[in-house]
Design a protein that fits this description.
This protein has 412 residues and is of the alpha/beta class. The chain is built from 14 helices and twelve strands. Helix 3 packs parallel to helix 10 and helix 13 crosses helix 14. 49% of the residues are buried.
């Protein structure tokens, strides 16, 4: 099928195409020169100029001029993500952290105020808690956004951005996106200027949650994780309006140089075609494993929004993007043991790999001890150390057996 209607993200007979169909077809197409039905990797740094280049805007991202300004593989990927997130446009950058930094530095300046979740990815925490206040004169407030009223109390006339992460990394705390969006936009009307709500959607992906449908202005993804899905490429993306995307491109891509490489963009676009299949398996396995862990006497706590015992479960259910969506592939848990006991347990695992990151095909686990600089912001049960477990695509039964075997071998 070569219909341009698919590649433009349109509908057949006024019925929207399904998520899986769009994941496969958007960003792909027939190469005009070779007839290949997959977009090629275009590794050129520079592109041929017209006869008279005097009228060219050398900072433009709309033309093929120089790869830092933008390139074909980046644009193919952006078209796909924008459609899956439900946005007008998207900007793909070199990493998830680049996407965070681009959002913050584009929309915040000296004298502005930002509010952000008390549990966020470490780079977001450092950018908003340390780097922007110390180097750029941006004032910030850390609040527990799982209670939307905390956001309301923190807003000021100088507030320009609220950044939330849900579920939060690594505590899996859940924030009500729609409730926070309502509070933020009401405040914007009251203060007479724009206040943006950005949501880090990496743990959920647009398969499980679509923040823009719930009222957010910006959705941020670390493409490195689930959307790529194979642990072999770095990338980040910001999904938002075209006007905001153009500002981000000019500020952060063209002038800061945070562009994604053509090869990484191609790898991520390739990986994304199986996103819905993979997310269904991640969702199902993580829920089964979370329930198993919750039943074990050696386990002090399990944090996973899919569990009915999770304090944010009802909100997490309400935010699901589709009937077959789930709660992601990451959970955290603590064992009834000491620091060394957690490390012994990890050392006895045979299928699950001890490594950082998440969203890979293989399961990854990391022990986060008591020396995390954000420890004071975590719920009390996390203070004795805990494990963040990114459930992969292995057979669920094998992962459960690996956990039980490691507990026995570690003497826990």
């Amino acid at each position: 099928m070569t219909s341009s209607r698919v590649h433009q993200g349109l509908s057949f007979d006024d019925n929207p195409l399904g998520f899986s169909t769009r994941s496969i077809h958007l960003g792909n197409g027939v190469d005009a020169e070779t007839g290949a039905i997959r977009r090629p990797i275009t590794l050129a740094n520079a592109y041929a100029l017209p006869y008279d280049p005097s009228d060219i805007n050398w900072s433009s991202s709309d033309l093929n001029l120089y790869a830092r300004n933008g390139h074909p593989n980046q644009r193919y990927l952006e078209a796909k993500i924008a459609n899956l997130e439900g946005s007008e446009d998207a900007v793909a950058l070199a990493s998830g952290v680049a996407a965070l930094a681009a959002t913050f530095t584009t929309f915040l300046g000296r004298g502005d105020h930002a509010v952000f979740s008390d549990t966020t990815y470490i780079a977001a925490y450092r950018l908003l808690h340390q780097i922007l206040p110390e180097k750029y004169g941006v004032d910030t407030s850390i609040v527990d956004t799982s209670d939307p009223e905390n956001v309301a109390r923190a807003l000021r006339p100088t507030t320009r951005l609220v950044h939330i992460e849900t579920p939060a990394n690594p505590t899996l705390k859940v924030t009500d996106i729609a409730a926070v969006a309502g509070i933020v936009h009401d405040a914007a009307k009251r203060y007479g200027h724009e206040i943006l709500l950005s949501v880090d959607n990496t743990f959920s992906t647009p398969y499980n949650v679509r923040p823009l449908d719930l009222g957010a202005d910006i959705a941020i993804e670390s493409l490195t994780k689930y959307i790529n899905g194979h642990g072999d490429a770095l990338g980040g993306v910001i999904a938002t309006t075209k006007e905001r995307a153009d500002r981000i491109r000019y500020t952060y891509q063209v002038n800061y140089g945070g562009v994604i490489s053509p090869f990484n963009a191609w790898l991520i676009n390739r990986g994304s075609v199986t996103l819905p299949l993979r997310m269904r398996q991640h969702n199902a396995s993580a829920l089964s494993i979370a329930r198993h862990l919750e039943s074990l006497p050696q386990v002090r706590f399990v944090a996973y929004p899919g569990l009915e015992s999770h304090p944010g479960h009802d909100v997490a259910v309400r935010q699901l993007a589709r009937p077959d969506a789930g709660f992601g592939g990451v959970l955290s848990f603590g064992l009834d043991t000491d620091h060394d006991g957690h490390n012994r347990f990890v050392s006895k695992l045979e299928v699950i790999t001890s490594a950082v990151s998440l969203g890979h095909d293989e399961s990854l686990i990391v022990f986060l001890g008591e020396d995390d600089e954000r420890q004071y912001l975590y719920p009390e049960e996390f203070h004795r150390g805990f494990l963040r477990f990114a459930v992969g695509l292995e057979d669920t039964e094998d992962l459960i057996r690996d956990i039980d075997h490691a507990l026995a071998e570690a003497g826990i």
